Amino acid sequence: MKQVEASVEYNGRFLRVWKEEKQNYSRYFVTPLCELISSSIKCSQDDYSKDQDYTVSLSLRLWSHKAAEFVKLAIAQKGVNISIDDIYPIPMQMYRLGTNKRLIFEIDNQWRLNQHQHKEVIFDLRTKNKDFCEKMTKDAREDPREFLDKTRLYLEFSMLAPKQTHIDVNITKEKLQKSEFFNRINKCHKNQGIVYLTTSDMNKLSNEILNATIAHDEISSENIPIEDKENIIKSLTEIIEEQQVPASNLSKEEWSSLFLHDQNSIRITWPRQKFGPNRLVLHRVNTTCLLSREEILYKRIVATIIPATQQIEIQPEFLENDTYSTKPNGELQSTFRKEEENFKTKLELDYKLLTSKLTSLEETMNQAMANFHIKISTLAIAQKDIQNDTDLLITHISNIQRYIINNSNDLETLKSTTSNIWNKFYW
């Protein structure tokens, strides 16, 4: 595609138009609309998911026939007449939903292939609370503009096909020490490197170590599939953790090796004291042992690399009561009026031509029907004459038969006389 051919104002934003030259024709590509379809927004429970979360489903309109008409008229303003069939949204190979804000619900931000170049796509916003799900639905339907302003949702897409590559995740003691959280644990407890962590702190430690490794190796975390990332964290946790220990089994000396990430908000006393957390399960970690190992974990994963991407802010669909509209201005509005007048004139001519053809067809059919009736009448008369002639012939034959019967003796006499005359003449 070449440089921008035109810029068309549509529904409060400018659509850029690119031209692509082919051997015998030209095609035009336009930025997608990214309009939130208010009527599509609904709240439902995902009965098929493991957590059975509540989801707010919403549809985005990427393209419409109306937008194509606007682009066609904008190009016509430049003196170039094109067919609406030669106007397309830019071909997106991959797309996903994104946001520039930390939200209290999860968004469906996984990359998707766009093989069929859909005109509308569906995304989910996930929450565990039914009331909040219904509130989001109500807010988005009643005031979609404010909802989008607060959530800052956008569509991210790539025009290039994704590439497959291998990523080596190699966690070493050097990268282990790049984790700020690990260093805090290691410095706080000098009891031969033994430390006890709660489950939440254990998960945090594994995540922090992986993130430190990714940052050190300059790997984009977005290129690592979520499933692979979860598997790495699970394997790392199994390596870091020496064993799981019920809190009630710890001695008071071992209890002093308990590490709490947030000691100000969490107060836990030794389980053997009154009101202690007897059912608390702790994870034993030996930081000295971990630092003695050159390599802690190595994984090679297949990753999908998404080429250069673009982001488009999602906006509400155009409604009749909006403060702005998709009506063109200036010269483009004049072009609309001319197109409308030309369409009306052509429609009137087509109507007159159609009426004339229908009248002519009606006259031809009437004449054909009249001729048909005449031929039917003539055929009936001819059939009657044939019948009369047949009856007359039958009568004549009958009369002849009676005559022959009544005059049979005279015929025999005539036959004998004729025979004698012939004999005399011959001899």
Element layout with pairings:
Blueprint: E1 4-10, E2 13-21, E3 26-30, E4 35-45, E5 54-61, H1 65-77, E6 87-89, E7 94-99, E8 106-107, E9 112-113, E10 120-127, H2 130-142, H3 144-151, E11 153-158, E12 163-172, H4 173-176, H5 180-188, E13 194-197, H6 199-216, H7 226-240, E14 241-246, H8 252-255, E15 258-259, E16 281-286, H9 287-291, E17 295-305, E18 309-313, E19 315-316, H10 330-406, H11 408-426
Parallel strand pairs: 3-6, 4-19, 13-15
Antiparallel strand pairs: 1-2, 2-3, 4-5, 5-10, 7-9, 7-11, 8-10, 11-18, 12-17, 13-16, 14-16
Helix pairs in contact: 1-10, 2-3, 6-7
Q: Identify the overall geometry.
A: elongated
Order of helices and strands: EEEEEHEEEEEHHEEHHEHHEHEEHEEEHH
Beta fraction = 25-35%
How many individual domains?
A: 2
Average pLDDT, to the nearest integer? 82
